[in-house]
Amino acid sequence: MTAACWHCSNPAPTGAFPAQTPDGPRDACCPGCAAAIETIYGLGLNDYYLMRQDAAPQPDDQRQALDCALFSVPELIDPHLTSLADGQRLKLQLGGLTCAACSWLIEKTVSQQPGVLRSSVNLASMTLSVDYQGQADASQTAGRIQALGYTVTLPGDPRTQADEQSAHKQLLGRLALAGLGAMQAMMYSTALYIGVFDGKDALYEWVFRLASFAVATPVVFYSGWPFFQGAWRGLRQARLTMDAPIALALLLAWAGSLVMMATGGRHVYFDSAAMFVFFLLASRWLEQRQRMTIQQAYRRVSDTLPQAVRRLDGQQIAHWISARQVAKGDRLQLIQGDIIPVDGTLIEGRGAFDESALNGEPLPVNHGINEPIHAGSRLVEGNIVLEASGPASSSLVAKIAEQVEHAQHERVEVVRDWQRIAPLFTGGILLLAVMTFIWHWPAGAAMAFEHTLAVLVVTCPCALALAVPLTLSSTLGTALREGILVASPRQLLRCTAVKGVLFDKTGTLTAGQFRIVDTETVNSLLPERDLLTIAAALEWNNPHPLAKPFQQYSRHPDITALHADHSGVSGTLQGAIWRITGAPDQARPDTTCLQLLCDNEVQLYVWLQDPIRPEARAVVKNLADLGITSRLASGDNAHAVNAVADQLGIGERRAQQRPAEKAAWLTQLESSAPQMMVGDGINDAQAMVVASVSVATGNATSLAQRAAGLFLLHDTLNAVPALPRLSRLCQRTIRQNLAWALLYNILAVPFAVSGLLPPWAAALGMSASSLLVTFNATRVTRWKLSSC
């Protein structure tokens, strides 16, 4: 006697591989499944078997042994580790997950591992993120996952991409077979529908019906197998999935047509079943393509990074090292044709850089001394020396990966409400089908069957299920193509409600490229040149834009005990305390003033000027045209803030604002209407967390980027007034898709229930509804920033 495996649902000889559980022995098809069952029950996670919608994957002992070897090589693990304040974070690639219950099981199992603080599964990208207290134990984590029957590898494993390609190819093959079969079945059925034979030539009529049966059967049971599989797995766990009415409709159409052929009935529905499968698979295939858009966009960037780079030692001799070994402050030698491996600052030479991998711009961009260069750019002309600003894990490419992953998590949450009501919706469909069958029973079993089949086909909830996720996927992919990285889809959708935008000044409305326009010594015995070398030594490692102009001067070699705070930098020279800080009282119109003090006595005043971004005036005007009020909050002095605000036509402005004061002002504004915060610096991050919508500019600091829900990949503000338009397009498309899907069901269901809609017309209507939703969602991809 053969039963189904309790774990993977494959055939299992009764008693051959029993798994011992508190509820008694469970049949398993192999020792691997038996071990997985006992592991799950042993961890107290047997609720998994009640929650899941699909059977678990069957363990592959040979592949597990190979995967285990990966986690015993530290050099392979290191690139996937991120340092945390209290430990490490490890990212792994999973395989074999089929539903939310699989995610729950893995998270619970890994969380029970000693030393694990938290674990999170991203079902959309099949990745696992694990936070450890102290050093990561990747081998034990992988072993726990493999014991459940799932595969686990390192991100970027070629086999993972091969599995994805295999699944995509299989789906495409099923779709192709369904398309060919549907066309052939329709050709044979058309002759039957229009009455070509008209009771005569019964032999030829029988041949045409037999031909329809021959071409439709492979379509129903091979191309449509995923729907039968999904429905059966759901029913085994007493759960109604969206596949249940689909599988029932396909089975009734095929079996009912077979009965009609055997009993000499008038109609067969092989063509309707084949069309039904074809259009359903077409929708799934388009959905799969849309879902992979963002991940592929990131892969195109990350795949360009080099594996090795030349690092200069103290004698200016270049040595090849792994790109993973690059640390902050390393000087890297790059020649024409090289790919930049890490973010850094150009300290020698000039070059033209192809940055199309990051921003899509085909024309090379010229960069000179002290200008930032991003990983993923290609040096197309020149030879340079780059000072690394950090390891590869801190580069813009790595941040894009983190934010893409965050967006995928949030996108799953957006459609979770539909997943909750889907079983109720499916149950309602089945109840309606039963009522239709009972209502039409007096007219005969054949007539009742036909109308019930029409109801099952016409009420397929595919269009409703696709309306939101497909539109969001299209919008996020389009935004990324236009240089807008959406880390929080919810924030993007809130843009339409924004009534005000609070801008930072330095580096946001201005270019953030200060230049020294004037200096003045005050009662100093040292010449101005020496004072500037002291200021340069104090400001050398300061990331603030005001510090960059001092890097053109040589540093005083004897400055020690450097200390930076929110208002300046201090250091010690020959027993005296030197400090550079702001001097707002000495500021002139359109300038910022710094003062250099020695033992609290002013020695030097330095006036700096930062040009306004050329697009800033148009951005403020476009926002005003949308009914959005622009405001300015800056830590700079009142003279500089008022000069910028007056030039841009910004009425409300506040100067000398600390981070907490910016956040407090934004909180006050939020009490009356949703607000947007646009900034680039560390002092903007606190306000970004408060804002309904937060936008980090292309030159933003790491903290500002992490606090923002939207990140501009291009160093321009042109996208800011376009965000409400993109949000409005996304929301309008979602509403259109939901309205159409609901309207279609409201209009079509009464006709199907009353018997006025035949099954073939129901299949066309359902398919047209799903395809219309899909194609309407893809219209978002035609949106361009340049058209706003």
What is the arithmetic mean of pLDDT? 77
Tell me the distance between the termini: 68 Å
Helical proportion?
40-55%
Q: What form results from the Cα inertia axes?
A: elongated
Strand order across the largest sheet? 19-31-30-29-20-27-28
Q: Which helices and strands, and how do they pair?
A:
Layout: E1 2-4, E2 11-13, E3 17-19, E4 26-28, H1 31-42, H2 48-51, H3 61-70, H4 74-77, E5 81-83, E6 87-95, H5 100-111, E7 116-122, E8 127-133, H6 138-147, E9 151-153, H7 158-193, H8 202-223, H9 225-236, H10 243-263, H11 270-291, H12 293-302, E10 308-312, E11 318-322, E12 331-334, E13 344-348, E14 351-354, H13 356-359, E15 365-367, E16 372-373, E17 378-381, E18 384-388, H14 396-414, H15 416-440, H16 445-458, H17 462-481, E19 484-486, H18 489-494, E20 500-503, H19 505-509, E21 515-521, H20 528-539, E22 560-565, E23 568-573, E24 576-582, E25 592-598, E26 601-609, H21 616-625, E27 629-633, H22 638-648, E28 652-654, H23 659-670, E29 675-679, H24 685-690, E30 693-696, H25 702-707, E31 710-712, H26 723-754, H27 759-778
Parallel strand pairs: 20-27, 20-29, 27-28, 29-30, 30-31
Antiparallel strand pairs: 1-2, 3-4, 5-6, 6-8, 6-9, 7-8, 10-11, 10-12, 12-18, 13-16, 13-18, 14-15, 14-17, 19-31, 21-26, 22-23, 23-24, 24-25, 25-26
Provide a brief overview of the structure:
The protein is of the alpha+beta class and 788 residues long.
Structure description:
The protein is α+β, with helices and mostly antiparallel strands. Helix content is 48%, strand content 19%. It contains 27 helices and 31 strands. Strands 19-31-30-29-20-27-28 form a 7-stranded mixed β-sheet, sandwiched between helices. Strands 11-10-12-18-13-16 form a 6-stranded antiparallel β-sheet, with no helix packed on it. Strand 1 (2-4) and strand 2 (11-13) form a beta hairpin. Helix 7 (158-193) packs antiparallel against helix 11, helix 10 (243-263) runs antiparallel to helix 11 and helix 11 packs parallel to helix 17 (462-481). The longest helix is centred in the first third of the chain and has 36 residues, at 158-193. It is elongated and about 115 Å long. It starts with a strand and ends in a 10-residue tail after the last helix. The mean pLDDT is 77.
